[in-house]
Amino acid sequence: MNIYDFSAKTIKGKLMPLSTFKGKVLLIVNTATHCGYTKQYNAMQTLYQQYQSKGLEILDFPSHTFLQTPEDNAGIEAFCERQFKTTFTTFEKIDVNGDQSHPLYQYLRKQNPQKTDVKIEWNFTKFLVNRRGEVVSRYNAKTTPEMLVKEIETLLNAR
């Protein structure tokens, strides 16, 4: 099993198989519109503009799990476009922890050496996925997108 086995609805409600991103390096992030880390959207967009043509895709999963994304999907989309001019793929608002969490996040939480369910601690938790759809790293919110450049470049250069 890997990332490509999942699908999610885009912010516009269209079901998108993650196999759409097969062969790409993925940065998967659970985001929030009213969080101290929300400004990381700027760095995510910069990374996307810099590396998208080389094979990077950023998958934005807004979440109200930590009560910091009160908007509906249309409000989230408008916020991201207005405040940060994001152009990477944004999905519908989801839960990232618990029984109601999105199946992708149920899978992502188990991608650690112990293969146990490790809860998402906060907004802007980041997962790096290689071109084969395998999760290679997990980072907490304090790890900024800029701090991932070297690892992203390494993954992009690996064939």
Would you mind describing this structure in some detail?
There is one protein chain. The chain has 159 residues and is an alpha/beta fold. It has a single domain, classed as Glutaredoxin. Strands 5-4-3-6-7 form a five-stranded mixed beta sheet. The protein has a two-stranded antiparallel ribbon with strand order 1-2. The radius of gyration is 14 Å and the shape is globular. The protein starts with 6 loop residues before the first strand and ends with a helix. The mean pLDDT is 95.
Write the layout of secondary structure elements.
Elements: E1 7-9, E2 15-17, E3 25-31, H1 40-51, E4 56-62, H2 73-84, E5 89-90, H3 103-109, E6 126-129, E7 135-139, H4 149-157
Parallel strand pairs: 3-4, 4-5
Antiparallel strand pairs: 1-2, 3-6, 6-7
